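Folds vary. Our protein:
___
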Amino acid sequence: MGLKLEIVITLVIIVILSAAFMVKITDNVSDEKRDAKELEFTDTTFIEVDTETMQGRAFSAYGIREQGVLTLYDLMYHTNNIELLSAKQGTYKNDRIYLDGNITLNQKKGFYYTAEHAVYDKKTKILDITSVFTGKMNKNIIHGYTMRYDTQKKEAFGKQIEAVVYTTEK
């Protein structure tokens, strides 16, 4: 007595189908974290404008946009009131630029400031220096721990200030 061909074929089909349903086919790439970069660029200039004038201009040697956040490296930023605001890294979030590393602010007809951490609010045009800073203009020197600087009014408010200020004699 031999096995009938129909029984052998049926058993083979059942084994193949059961094996196919037991095997989980996965895509290895989907299990790993995918690169979230939306945009990557080098040596780029950004010009911010409104309906009337240019608001600001930023140059970056390298930049990335990830999850809606723009990060610029070797940033140089200019406005009508700011001759040059530069930093090793600047991160744009909404209307603020978070600056880190070797920050310098050259004010038109004003002080030259250096610091390590700061936040510039583009709407209010206020620079909040959140680290130790130094300001220089001619022989005038200011050292402090934190400072809030209004770039339009050219008013600075600082904490724990040490200053040498030369005034004109009258």
User: Anything to note?
Assistant: The chain has a mean pLDDT of 85. Residues 37-164 form a domain with the lipopolysaccharide transport protein A fold fold (CATH 2.60.450.10). Residues 83 and 165 are 23 Å apart (CA to CA).
